[in-house]
Amino acid sequence: MTPRLSVVVPVHNVEEYLGACLESLARQSLEDLDVVLVDDGSTDASAAVAREFAARDDRFTVVGRENGGLGAARNTGVRHTAPGSAYLAFVDSDDVLPSRAFESLVASLDKSGSDFASGNVLRLGAGGRLRQHPLFTEPMRSTRRATHVTRHWPLLLDRIACNKVFRREFWDAHSFAFPEGVLYEDIPVILPAHFAARSVDVLQDAVYYWRFRDSSITNKRAVVRGVADRTAAVLGVSRGLAGTPGHKKRYDESVLREDLWYFMQVLPDGDPAYQEAFLRCAREFTDQVDPEVLGGLPPHHRVKWHLAREKRLEELVALLEFERRSPRTHRVRGLRRRSADYPALTAPVPRDVLALAPADLPLEARLTGADWHEGRLRLTGYGYVRNIPAQVRRHALKAAWLRTPDRRALPLRLRRVNDPSITARSGQELHRYDWAGFEITVDPARLLTESAATTWKLVLGVLGHGVARRGGVADAGAHLGVHYLDEHTRIVPVFASGRFQLTAERVHTWLTGHDSHEGRLTLTGGTRTRAVALRLGHWHSDAAIQVPLARDGERFTAEVPLEELAQVRGRGPVRAPHGEARPADSYSVQLVKPDGKRLAVAAPPGLALGRHALPGGRELAVTVSAWGNAVVADQLPHAYAECVTWTDNSLVVEGCYGGGSGLPLRLCHTGTDEEAELPVRHAGDRLRVESAYEALTLLADGTWQLHLGDGPVRVPAAAHPGLPAARRIGGRDFSVERRSHDQLVLVVSKGA
């Protein structure tokens, strides 16, 4: 029987990783496939591993050849795939796939009829840690079926073969083949395929785990062969688009911002041969680029490509070194026609290269703190125009107001604050922003209107050196909390779409308790509405569980069969960077009125954290969302930190965990693959972590996420007021905080 999908896996000296790759292929939920393993002249035990696996699974075959590189091995594999298979895929032998990867991609193609489907990619680091690969953040931000690169230009960044399934007739009709004996062999195939396709499918779900290895060819930059092969690849694509000038301009801009910028960044690290090769390649590519493309780049790209074309190597290297210390930083010259002035430049540069548009001087506005004091909300933060200094009070004029969607405005009193740490936060060394700080106090009574709910967005206006900007305020570590004015009125501060807003609303439905017994979850609460049912809406799919309410005046009771939760478990895509099993299936809790309208169920202050045991070692948690509403989560056991304190010589974290004993607390650095462990004392479902200062001082600066077992350590709502908890140790600041609403982190910094 002809398999539906053929998979080509080139193999060369990857004995350490090959087994995991092949196991992930064997576990694919789409079982109707054949896998061609091409031994590309391996000198280690890779070929033996491949043959042993093929002997166990007749869907796998091994083809041997002399070493010829990745492109040649892939082409050989395609020639040995099963005749008549409908789909074709490629996998690198040191990477792994989630179990539903091929099922998701093929199902999408069956439904859409597109020529190929492409899915999200996570970066697989040391210890099996998975994180979103930054290259695929924007292209795969949302699922798009039957789209095209010319309708979704971020797909220009989607240029690898391994996160895709191709319709075989499309592949054969265009006679696609990988170039042989070169690096970056994907680009000459994948980019033309994007433009040649009638349509493509884009899946937000992760379908590929790309292993990050220091020895990987994709991690070598400052080498002559690398820049030469990459330039040849992008030149081929660019010249192939000559018949469609608009498409060529878009692609050329992407190359200058991404592909060749990747090699320009390491010019200071390269030897003279690499630097000369880069300048030669840069000139070769830019000579065939429309001048409009070069002129339309942002200033920090525009000036560097000008220096590269002029072969002003010393200035270019100096500018790159400066920007490593001060990214996108320059002085601003002129009043009516502003231009950038870079310290590294020693000779004139044309004015149009240095010209600044309003968008080149954006507002940088962040909220650093939010707390309730004597019934009022106190907000602290900073706001400045990037590259416009705010080192003296008169150059840091600011105003703030709240605005509703219907454009009602509420002016706020703002106090300007001198805070040298703002300059340190800016991550540059050219300007001082000490006077960019602000403090705002909001009277919640002014937020109430006749409407049941009113949302106010915070807007900050800044004026400095004749440059005025206004906009929303983003997060910089503010710790938000829902505040009740009375039993049925609350203020909800959140960051929505990355910007701070306040919602004043009247609460008509609330939860008072929860219990589980005899296979049922019982939820009790109150409502001032005519609600007739309770609905649990699954966050990850369209599934929902709805049960009738038992009413006694304002009080209600609802019983949810646990078996119905089990039937929904695992539905929908796996979007978070974790492994095969989703750690939690979360549900919103809503009441349903007779007309079908749904009402969120609030979780008022004092609602106890719910942890109810489920079969199979899972638990049912009743928690609170960032919006202050009840959430039910069917999850693997999570640890909850109920109390964080600093003693004279230790950090102490106390809480609960239902996942068993003997597991350490893992600290995972968000910027690297570095991990550390702290011992945990378990007593039943209680936990206690006590770490001496000496152990903490070994941690690198940055943010460390705290994990226990299969999930992050979370902070129940009752413990939110106790954070952040900070201590200065050995000249560095250590702060235990909550991020992403309820996840516990340790932030380590040098401090002021």
Description:
The protein has 752 residues and is of the alpha+beta class. The protein contains 17 helices and 45 strands. The strands form eight sheets. Strands 1, 2, 3, 4, 5, 6, 7, 8 and 9 form a nine-stranded mixed β-sheet that branches. Strands 14, 15, 18, 19, 21, 22 and 23 form a seven-stranded antiparallel β-sheet that branches. A hairpin with a 5-residue loop joins strand 26 and strand 27. It is globular. 39% of the residues are buried. Mean pLDDT is 93; it is low at 215-219 and 575-581.
Using brief descriptors, characterize the structure shown.
17 helices, single chain, 21% helix, nine-stranded mixed β-sheet, globular, 752 residues, alpha+beta
General shape: globular
Helix content: 10-25%
What is the total tally of β strands? 45
Number of helices: 17
Low-confidence stretches: 215-219, 575-581
Mean pLDDT figure: 93
From the N-terminal CA to the C-terminal CA, the straight-line distance is 69 Å
Q: Which range does the strand content fall in?
A: 35-45%
For this entry, what is the oligomeric state of its chains? single chain
Q: What value does the Rg take, in angstroms? A: 29 Å
Assign the structural class, choosing from mainly alpha, mainly beta, alpha/beta, alpha+beta, or little secondary structure. Answer: alpha+beta
Largest sheet: 9 strands, mixed
Helix/strand layout:
Layout lengths: L4 E7 L3 H12 L6 E8 L5 H11 L3 E6 L4 H10 L7 E4 L10 H12 L3 E9 L5 E3 L11 E4 L16 E4 H6 L13 H10 L3 E12 L12 H17 L4 H15 L1 H4 L7 H15 L4 H5 L3 H11 L3 H13 L5 E3 L5 E3 L9 H4 L8 E11 L2 E10 L11 E7 L5 E4 L1 E4 L3 H5 L11 E6 L10 E12 L2 E6 L1 E2 L7 E4 L2 E8 L2 E8 L2 E9 L2 E8 L5 E6 L5 E5 L1 E3 L2 E7 H7 L15 E9 L5 E3 L9 E4 L5 E6 L5 E6 L4 E7 L3 E7 L8 E5 L5 E4 L2 E3 L2 E7 H4 L5 E7 L2 E2 L12 E5 L2 E8 L3 E7 L3
